[in-house]
Design brief:
The chain is of the alpha/beta class. The strands form two sheets. It has a five-stranded mixed β-sheet. Strands 5-6 form a two-stranded antiparallel ribbon. The longest helix has 14 residues.
Length: 242
């Protein structure tokens, strides 16, 4: 999603490109986008999610960074604020390191830190209920939405959340399912585990705002950005040797 933003005082702050999480879609930014500066222009988001194209492979930061560069080129945007959530934060960080001249500022929302294998396992355990909706066929749209409304991690339900889930529904011969292929997400998950975020920090040339959740999804420790990870991010970004 790319949009001009407006400050509380009404002055235009330039375009913001928002990148969503691993099984999300561009509609996750609706509430924020419309609070900033309607009308809004949306980029469908990383490949394999929502209504973006779904290549057979290529679900890694390398390919997503190329996609972002192409989107900015197509929109004739030289520099933008990059905001990424979860997987989107990792993508945004990689883009800011590879193309620092294209990034005005960056906002990392619950992502962009190096997790241990044990921490990453807890994160994927926390999002397991979300992953389980993928590849499952439901009788109809209402059956799918009813299942989502019961999820404890999506409360309270709202029209914006319903619109978000409707956006990912596609019809099949036997009912409806999400338009996200589980194998693509598995490839993405495998690749994100191999990323060394600290290698990017010293190459980022813009101001960075880090936002983190202090409560987990299913437990107290399934956090994408635990406090000690943020501390390491700050130390590494300030270190002369990266």
């Amino acid at each position: 999603m790319a949009s001009p933003s407006t400050s509380p005082h009404g002055s235009e702050a330039g375009p913001i490109l928002c990148i969503h999480g691993i099984t999300a879609n561009c509609r996750c930014w609706d509430v924020l986008a419309h609070s900033l500066a309607p009308p809004i222009g949306f980029w469908h988001g990383p490949a394999g999610r929502g209504r973006s194209e779904k290549p057979a492979s290529g679900y890694s930061l390398e390919y997503h960074v190329q996609d972002i560069r192409c989107v900015l080129d197509d929109l004739r945007i030289d520099r933008a604020v990059i905001m990424g959530h979860s997987l989107g934060a990792f993508i945004g960080l990689a883009f800011a390191a590879e193309h620092p001249e294209r990034v005005e500022k960056m906002i990392l929302v619950d992502g962009g830190g190096d997790l241990s294998k044990e921490q990453m396992d807890k994160v994927f355990a926390g999002i397991k209920p979300s992953l389980e909706r993928l590849g499952h066929v439901y009788p109809d749209t209402e059956a799918y939405l009813s299942k989502m409304r019961q999820a404890p991690f999506i409360q309270p339900w709202s029209p914006a959340i319903e619109n978000y889930y409707r956006y990912e529904i596609e019809k099949t011969d036997n009912g409806v399912c999400t338009n996200i292929t589980p194998a693509h997400i598995a490839e993405e998950a495998d690749n994100i585990r191999k990323v060394k975020c600290a290698e990017y920090y010293a190459r980022v040339r813009c101001n960075v705002l880090i936002l983190r959740a202090t409560d987990g999804l299913l437990s107290d420790d399934d956090l994408l950005l635990p406090g000690d990870v943020v501390d390491r991010m700050l130390r590494k970004s300030r270190s002369p040797d990266g």
